[in-house]
Fold these 3 entries.
Entry 1:
Amino acid sequence: MLDLLRAALLGILQGLTEFLPVSSTAHLLIAQDLIGYEDDGSVFTVMIQLGSILAVMWLYRQRIIDVVAGLPDKPEARRFALMLFLAFLPAVPIALLGKDVVTGMLHQSMTVIAVAFVLGGIAMLLIEKFRPTPKVMDAAQTPIARAVGVGFFQALALIPGVSRSGATIFGGMLLGLDRRAAAEFSFFLAMPTMLGAFVVEFLDVKDQLAPDRAGEIAVGFVFAFIAAALVVKPFLEFVTRVGFAPFAWYRIGLGAVMLVGAAIQ
């Protein structure tokens, strides 16, 4: 029962943080360490991420249906699909080449995560204050060149603590998207990126899937789906009205606490 409760907690944490600019990977690593949850081979983490992916796909299901149905005869559907495909591409070779380095070294360093939290928070505050005047108000109308630029920013998320959503949102803002458009573009780009990452990681861990962990994975998956489904729309409304400064200060505060803790140990 205790393992199921831990799985539910981690699933909620995964769903809540996956699409916020705070790094779900880092939060899961920290939480697993704090509650003593052993995730050998990251099997549990890989599987519950699928819940978050499916949640955002469910929320944007009508957009997906319209694009897929419109590919044969609607130029706007083909443009949208091409935009996401080209934005997705830059992270692929970088992720494949750097995956072993990250898994073997950076994922084991809480100091790296803490520094990434602090620097990412500072970058957020600077971008909020000095970003260029927004020129793109609709994520679906993002120019192809800017979409590809966001794709390169996404590659920064390979470093634990940077945050995939944070890198894409703030890359988008630097490239002229307004807050809401940048956040929504991040959600759109998450679909192919996270699905692709899931397939690659699943192939790595499929032989480690044990029947006795099926209950934990199922619980974590369901709670990740529910939490992500509940957080995406309110997040969009919040950043449209308030901005990203609260997330920036949260990152800086948490990173500072982690650095102090590491220094004391």
Note: The two ends are 32 Å apart (CA to CA).
Entry 2:
Amino acid sequence: MNDLDKFQKLINIIKKLRAPGGCDWDRKQTSTSLIPYLTEEAYEVIDAIEQSDTSALREELGDLLLHVLFQAEIRSEKNDFDIFDSIDSVCNKLIKRHPEVFNDSDKDNLVEKGSWEKRKKIEKNRKSILEGVPNSLPGLLRARRIQEKASSVGFDWKNHRPVIEKIQEELDEVNDAIKNHGKEEVIMEIGDLLFAVVNLSRFFEIDPERALKKSTNKFIKRFNSIEERIKLDGGEIKEYTSDFMESLWNEIKKDE
């Protein structure tokens, strides 16, 4: 069986599951009802990549592809489009947005800074370069994509030093809001601080979501160590003071 046959086999399996006499669960699904599963599969792909687990990545990419084809099959049943229309669309998009690669007449032309975003803006009749970033993206990733889009047309700091100064400025404004303003103002200022921190991570080509995840996992590991030490002493964590737990934390941190 060649690769195209394998692709068609998966499509045929989905069609059979959706057909009369197929799987009751699959038949009742809609594009909307599948969103949680599609989201979960995308994150499982990310987990496999971050863990450098080749075997898991192979499996999770298959699961994600299943949901891509499932979504396309639902639309095909409504005579909207099928997966091959989607493939054709993305092929045309890639060729159109890379004239310097696919168009011989543009082989010798340099790619203009921000040209990808400018082409998308024209193609999709967008009013702003910043349009097109999904609202449903996690906040840190959405902030990064917005910043990247602005940077692509030259709206950016020249280096990271003023970004660090901006972080300090935003932190001062958080302190001022806490002392002199209400909760809504504190929310806004903390948001500005996070946005500035995301900007700093972008300058060093660091994924802020991944950086935060690593720090969260580090916190979990150290906190679990505190729990284990207290358990060995025969105690309950709620019985100990925060000062005592902080001293344990510092010991664990030092041992690392």
Note: The longest helix spans residues 208-232.
Entry 3:
Amino acid sequence: MKKALIVWGGWHGHEPKEVAGTFENALSEMGFSVEVSDTLDAFLDAEKLQSLDLIVPVWTMGTITKEQLKPVMSAVAGGVGLAGCHGGMCDAFRQSTDWQFMTGGQWVAHPGNDGVEYTVNIIAGSSEIVAGIEDFKVKSEQYYLHVDPAVKVLATTRFPTVDGPHVPNGEVDMPVLWTKYWGKGRVFYNSLGHHNDVIAAEPALTLMKRGFAWAAAGKEIARKEAAAR
């Protein structure tokens, strides 16, 4: 049985406890053994992290120590998957450039704030994660992120949707879903999820489930590669 760790906390406006509950239910339905923690000290046990298949951060605007961060980065580099959504993963630790390097991006703005209606444009054929899913509309925060050029983009959204100082730059397609690698580990991110009802709705939840499965599969691949040496 695959093992997952969900760590939630930080800014309560993103409903981290509720999102963690949604993810716990989803992962349990997928056959994972799931542990849920509300402290970043859950990251201190390096040996335990290495035994996992998946780490799911649900923590916005916090501070992570070097002692807490190093075991996570080492576990992911060794093959443990990392997957999350919205500010819970890519606005987790604003002062940690190492975290941002590993996850692939950092939130910087959401023009219009909550309640903006926008379209998520799926890049057909980009990944099994988005297979069979059509473009869909969302009414929520539209995330503007600074993004690692190494990520593989699976879906985008068009800016500008609302007025602001970014408008004179013209239209840009901002990544909404992406995958990347960190060492042997697989990383998946979904910028949706300002509140639990957004990420618990379809097709956002299906995208998360597929992202979890894709990220967690990297551990077994890393094991097989090591055994073949």
Note: Residues 3-228 form a domain with the Rossmann fold fold (CATH 3.40.50.880).
